[in-house]
Amino acid sequence: MSMGIGTIMEAEKVVMIVNGASKAGVVKEMVEGPMTSDLPGSWMGLAGSRAELIVEAGAAAELNLA
C-alpha cells in the first residue's frame, strides 16, 4: 500500500513497518533527509505521536543512530 502526504496528515494513526536491507537507503532518506513530495513517508514526523515507525535491523542499517 502507498500513502500520500494528505493521507498521512489526516490519519488518526499511521504505522509504517519497514523490513529488509534493500530499504535501508530509503529509510535513511525518509528519517534523516528533508521532507519531500517524492518521499511521502518523510512527512511522518509532522504526525507527531500519531506516527509509529517500525524498522528492522537491516532496513535501519544506514541510519545515524548517534
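Next protein, fold it too.
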Amino acid sequence: MGVRSLPSFLAVGITLGSLTYVPVTMANVQTRATATLQVGSYTAHVQTVVAKDGKVTTTYMPIWYLLQGLKSLGLDATWDGVSHTLNITTPEGMPVGSGQSAAGTGSTRVLLNGKLIHRLNSLVAIDPSSKKPTVFFPIWYFTFLTTQLNLSTAWNGHVWSLQPKGAFPKILNRNQSLGDAASPTDVNGNVIVLGTNTRIQNARINGNVYLNPGSNGDVTLKNVTVTGQIVVESGATHSIHLDGVAAPQLVVASSSPVHIVANGGTAIQTTEIGPSEKYAVSLDNASGTLGDLLIESAPSIMLSGTTPFPDVIVAASANVVVQPGTQVNNVQVSESGAAVTVQQGASVTTVNVTGKASVNLVVNGNVGTIASTSATVTVVGTGTVSAVQGTGVQGSLPGLPRETSPSTAGNNASGTSASGTSPSGTSTSATSTSGTST
C-alpha cells in the first residue's frame, strides 16, 4: 500500500478547531519518517513527526489515521478541536476498563465513554501531502489503550500495532461475514455487527450477538446457535433475517423501525421489546418461532407468520396488531391505554385483561375467549368472540356474548343456589324446621 495522505478538507476540519489552540512550535520538529499503523485489519502507511515532548523525544502520528483504525474495531472515535479532546465510545457488548483517570499531563484529553482516562500533549504540524496543518498524537503515551480497551500495543520505531486480545468481541463492519458454510465456527465471546449487508453463518456464539446494521441496514444469521442474547439495536423494515437460529432470548432495543423474520426452524425462547423502545417493531414467525413475547414499550407491534405465537404479554400502552393468517394462543394485557387488533383471517385463543386496565380490542378476525376481572374492555369490529368471562367487557361487536363468571354461574340474585342450598349450607328444597321432610 502506498503512502496515504490526509485529505485537505479533513485536515482543517479535525485539527485546529479553535484559533486559541497553541501548538508545539515547528522548531521542535526534528525529523519526519514513514511508519505503518496496524489496528486490527486496518493498515495505513503514514508520515510521522519526531519531536520533543518536554525533554523527551517521541514519535507523533496524524490523528486521522488513528481514528480510522479505532473505527475498524467498532469504536466510535471523534476529535473535538475546540476542547482538544479525543472521544472514544464503545458499542454495547464491548468490555472496557474502569474509565478512571490515568497518569498523564497535557492540554489534550482522551475520554472513554465520557470519562477522562488520559491526558497528553498533542501537536499541530503540516501534513506533508496535503500541506495543511493537522493534529499529531504521540504514540508512546497511547499505551493506556492496552488496559482500557483490551488491546495489545507495540511500537518498534517503524510499525505501530494495536491488536485485540483476550475477550475482545468479534466486529463485523459493512459487507463482512463470519463463518463458513462448509465447516462450523466457534466464537468464544460477543459478536457485534456494525454495518449493513453482513452475515453470520454456521456458527456457535458462546456469548451475545449485537445487531446494529443501521437504520437502512440488513443482517442475516443462518444456522447459528447463540448461548446468550441476540440484541437488535437498529434495522429497517425488512432487515433482520434469522434462518435456523437458536437462542434463549431476543431483545429489541432499536434506534429505528425494524422487521425481524424467523425462518428455517428458528427457535427463540423469549422475545423482549425493551422499555426504551420508541419505534415500530414487526415480528414474523414465517417458518420459525420468536417464542413468548414480552412488550414493555413501542408504539406499534405487528405480528405475522404461520407459526403461532405462544404467549404475548402486553405490559405497556402499545398497539398490538395480529395480522391476517396469524395465530396467537394467549394475549395478556395489564396496562391501560393498550390496544389489540385482530385482523380478518387472524385468530387469538384467549385475551386476558388483568388489574384496572382499560383496553380497546378490535376484533375483525376470531377470538375464542375474552377474560377480565376488574378491567374495562371495549370490543368493536366485525369478527367473532366465542365467550366472555368476568366483568367489564362491553362494546358494539355484533353477537358479543354476555358475561359469565365461573365462580358464580348458576346462582340467583340473592346468592342462593337454584338447586336449593342456602348460604348457610342447609337444604331448602324439602326439609322442614323440625327435620321432617315436606
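About the second fold: Helices lie at 8-13, 63-72, 145-148.
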